[in-house]
Amino acid sequence: MTDNTPAAPSQESLDSLSYEEAREQLVGVVGRLEAGGASLEESLALWERGEALAKRCEDWLEGARKRLATARDAANDAGAAAGPE
Fold first, then answer.
1. What's the DSSP call for residue 77?
2. C-alpha distances out from residue 6 to 16, 55, 75, 80, 83, Å
3. Which position has the higher pLDDT, 85 or 22?
4. Which 3-state string (H, E, C) describes 3-71?
């Protein structure tokens, strides 16, 4: 019998995923869970992988929010330093 249970995600493997890669894998995991038919052990492994992938996506989005806020603040500071025209 072949075990198709996904390996537990290592932090290193997750850290190397782009947002798009993590999201694509998460969509695949959700699809497999929704399709049903997996053993309890496989379902648990899929759930754990999905949770880790969702966290990776959240981390990417939070990083993007921070970068946008920094850029916005820098633009506002530059505009304030220039003074009124």
1. H
2. 17, 17, 45, 53, 58
3. 22
4. CCCCCCCCHHHHHCCCHHHHHHHHHHHHHHHHHCCCCHHHHHHHHHHHHHHHHHHHHHHHHHHHHHHHH
pLDDT digit string, tens, across residues 26-79: 999 999 999 999 999 999 999 999 999 999 999 999 999 999 999 999 998 887
Q: Which domains does the chain have, with CATH numbers?
A: 11-82 (1.10.287)
Tokens of 62: 């939070």
Question: Which tokens belong to 44?
Answer: 């648990």
